[in-house]
Design brief:
Layout (H helix, E strand, L loop, with lengths): L1 E3 L3 H11 L9 E3 L2 E3 L8 H11 L2 E2 L14 H5 L5 H6 L5 E3 L2 E4 L9 H11 L5 E10 L4 E9 L4 E6 L2 E6 L10 H10 L5 E4 L6 H9 L3 E6 L2 H13 L6 E5 L2 H5 L9 E4 L9 H7 L5 E10 L3 H15 L4 E14 L2 E10 L1
Parallel strand pairs: 6-7, 11-12, 11-14, 12-13, 14-15
Antiparallel strand pairs: 1-3, 1-4, 2-3, 5-6, 7-8, 9-10, 15-17, 16-17
Helix pairs in contact: 1-2, 6-7
Amino acid sequence: MRVAKRRAQKALAILKDLGLLDRELKPRREGDLVLLPLLRDPSDQELEFLRQEVGDIEISEADFPVREKPRSLLDLLSTSLPPDALEKAPRSFDIIGDIAVVELEPEVWPYASAIGSAIMALHKRVRLVLAKKGPISGDFRLRGLSPIAGSGPTETTHREHGCFFRLDVARVYFSPRLSYEHARVASQAHDGELVVDMFAGVGPFPILMAKQKALMAYAVDLNPVAFHYLTLNVVLNRVRGKVIPLLADARSLAEGGLHGLADRVLMNLPERAHEFLEAACTILRPEGGTIHFYTFAGGSSPELEAIERLREGVRRAGRSVRRILLVRKVRAVAPFRWQIVVDAEVV
């Protein structure tokens, strides 16, 4: 993919999120353009999204130098873990700012320190490695985290799509794996809209929207710590007056200050979003609008399960789904179980 040099870093980040970038080849310069190697041809939807985000691009054939492969985490661990533990060692982990978060199987907990040290050796900017302890739970979507390497506080600053998010990984929910979703949903918004994010966390959805579009967003969250960082991030990203943080249960605002105001409602609380669909429909304008609904689903047809869950909640609110705009698997959360997003036009 050929893209203007000034847009190359943003294009690179999006291609990574879409799983399009061929990491085994090196990008190269061609005058004022940068050539980025792709694994496959982008779909029509992906091309449209890329053009919205980075402007003019061209897809064509080119030769690229092969990138020298860095040592993998398993390579580094092969000298410190016995073979049976190496089979259970993590293949991936999340990096949030300068903190890495990894999930460990019970069999490899005795080697947690070695795994943490290997992650830090692989990623020099990581200063602290935390291991997950137990599933996400509670109204604030938190899980226990245990330090296994490095030092320092659990507060960090994460950069994404040109925005900065200050957060404490131990006290608020944030997933870097939703980076593509943040950008995708932001690209769907229009100038002049009023957006309500019912579960805003530290603000990745509404802040990116407000940076890109001339709109207003109400960002609601029940966690006082998340609200603190949300307010801080609004200032940090210079969107004061465009993103209004609210510390509240979104349902309490549906019949109050947000009743009938929104053109677009975001519902990224996959464990329980279906419980809030009636409130979301109340927040939408009387003439209707768009809902971005996130849920967990499994089985042979998880997308159909998610659509039906949305339709049922909308029916309970006395409204109807006029059109399904998109349904897709966001990420796997367990064997044969996925986080699904459904974008729908509701009237």
